[in-house]
Design brief:
alpha/beta, 2 domains, five-stranded mixed barrel, elongated
């Protein structure tokens, strides 16, 4: 009898398969970030560096501006007090210089500056021209002001807003000759107007002063615009009143003095830029090394 052949059982497939070169390359390509993503990341890091450096430089510039303003304030305060007269030359009207002026108020030409606060309360700054020829009687026709002598605009003080809000026709003003003491300003401090951001129309100064009806309200007042509307010869400066003016409050904002704050902000922005630059370099080197393999 013949011996029957031995049948071999089929072995189950093993899980230990040897990776092919193609599979290894495919796995490496999946583990490695794509070139497009790396380029996007590098571009974003570069933009971050540029933005942070720009903001840091802007903070440095702001600090220099405030330092220059503080120096100007100190220089003005050290000057001898000025007696403002009709013949005072503009060169003598140095900003932040102590000064006084004698003359008569023109209350009919008062302008209210809106959205000014004092002690957290809303209200108005009161601006009234002081005519330096010691006359308080205002003629009716604006051209007549020029022949009566020059004026200087005076920031008299702050007046609280009444609730409910009502237009004001007058502000209590002393009649006759007065002497006002204070500080010379080159212009009336301005506020940001929402109209410049497209948020509505700002109140504008009437074309002719005095205006009929209540006292005009504006956000900001330019000396040249007031001169055109009133027909007055206006000195190119403002006198910020310091002594009390009746019921008005003298709560003027102090010039900005914190220059160290801008230096700190600049250091932060430059630090962010340095971090972005380091990340940019590390990512670029890694990408170049991986692309050579």
């Amino acid at each position: 009898m013949g011996v029957p052949p031995v049948q071999q059982k089929a072995m189950p497939p093993s899980n230990d398969t040897v990776p092919t070169p193609t599979g290894a390359m495919a796995g490496a390509s999946k583990a490695r970030p794509s070139r497009g993503r790396v380029i996007v990341a590098l571009v974003l890091l570069a933009i971050t560096m540029l933005v942070c450096v720009s903001l840091g430089r802007w903070q440095v510039a702001r600090g220099k501006e405030k330092a220059a303003l503080l120096a100007q304030v100190e220089d003005g305060k050290r000057q001898a007090p000025l007696q403002v007269v009709p013949a005072t030359p503009p060169a003598e009207l140095t900003a932040w210089r102590p000064a006084s002026a004698t003359g008569g108020w023109l209350p009919g030409l008062t302008v209210l500056l809106d959205n000014r606060t004092a002690g957290g309360r809303p209200g108005f700054w009161v601006v009234t021209p002081l005519r330096l020829d010691n006359s308080s009687e205002a003629p009716k026709a604006p051209p007549g002001y020029t022949d009566s002598g020059p004026v200087i605009l005076v920031l008299r003080g702050w007046l609280p807003r009444q609730f409910p809000d009502q237009p004001l026709s007058t502000v209590p003003t002393r009649a006759g000759q007065v002497t006002v003491s204070g500080t010379v300003l080159s212009h009336i401090p301005r506020l940001l107007e929402l109209s410049s951001l497209g948020a509505g129309k700002a109140a504008v100064l009437p074309d002719r002063l005095p205006a009929d009806g209540p006292l005009p309200r504006v956000q900001n007042l330019d000396i040249a615009a007031f001169a055109r509307a009133s027909g007055l010869t206006v000195l190119p400066a403002v006198l910020q009143s310091s002594p009390s003016d009746g019921s008005l409050v003298q709560d003027w904002p102090a010039p900005p003095a914190n220059t160290d704050m801008h230096r700190g902000y600049a250091l932060q922005w430059f630090s962010f830029a340095a971090i972005a630059a380091i990340a940019f370099g590390v990512l670029l080197v890694r990408h170049l090394r991986s692309s050579r393999r």
